[in-house]
Amino acid sequence: MAGNKKNTMDQTYKPTPSAPMVRIMVLETDVPHPDTYSERGSFGQIVHEHFAKAGREHHPPLGVEIDQVFVVTEQGGEIPPVDAFEGFDGLLITGSVYDAHADNEWILSLLELLRKLWITRPDFRFLGVCFGHQLLARLLGGDVGPAPTQDWELGHCRITLTPVGQRLFRTDDDYIHLHQMHQDQVLSPPTAASAGPELLPADAEIAVWGRSEHTPVQGLYIPNRLFTTQAHLAFDEDMVKRQIQIRVESGGIKDLEHADRAAETADLEHDGVEVAKAVLRIFVFDDNGHA
Questions:
Q1: Pairing of strands 175-182, 125-129
Q2: Number of folded domains in the chain?
Q3: Given a cut of 50, is residue 5 above it in pLDDT?
Q4: Residue 291 in domain
Q5: What's the pTM value of the predicted model, to 2 decimals?
Q6: Which of 32, 56, 153, 278 could form a disulfide with 214 if both were Cys (CB 3.0 to 4.6 A apart)?
Q7: pLDDT, mean of residues 211-217
Q8: Cβ(137)–Cβ(127) under 8 Å?
Q9: So what's the pLDDT on residue 64?
Q10: 3 state SS for 186-228
Q11: Cβ of 151: how many Cβ atoms within 10 Å?
């Protein structure tokens, strides 16, 4: 696989000329299991497939266009320049086997790129999944590191919604369910003070939309600006099992009983499309009668 190749995806949904189009640059910070890649493509392609489905359920329907770039330079990737994001409405940072709190050269370069984009593009949306969630929290001054318990949150998990989360997902339910695959977490959420005046005004609020027993910061939200999730939106049963397998074989996951229990939950239904629909609403308002 050409790790630094950048491709425009074919749209699954072709909007009418008057329908809105959302253009997102996916910054890939990892590669899928080889079997997943052969079946579903790169993480950028998987993101496109997932958000295209959510776009079809938007009111009115949205077209979703994705471009991707693999940014792990120590594996042949590249950090794109700021002008590569012209014409895009936002970016999404994927999950990764790397630590978002680490100081690898590519991670520091990516943080610098994100900082420049945040300052120069006030209209831009920043999305993060797992590693991406943690990296954007770090950008804004949050504390990121291994879970205090040193254990993993794996498989199909229940996330307790805050009032902000209930409003974002347009539900009266107290919970949503998503697949998890992480040991690191956001230990303390960023604030306007931790971000500093160059990134956020003093009165800006960074909301936490959900929590779990393992991870108190499951996602961050700033209206029209930021949406992150610790959990994975687009994982299917095979992806969950394969990603667990990768981490067991690498020695990252040492509790094999925990890994086996998590793999047994891989077939359970989850709310990934509902979360993707909420993400798209930070780009284009969904006129379906809700606030």
A1: unpaired
A2: 1
A3: no
A4: no
A5: 0.88
A6: 153
A7: 94
A8: no
A9: 96
A10: EEECCCHHHHCCCCCCCCCCCEEEEECCCCCCCEEEECCCEEE
A11: 14
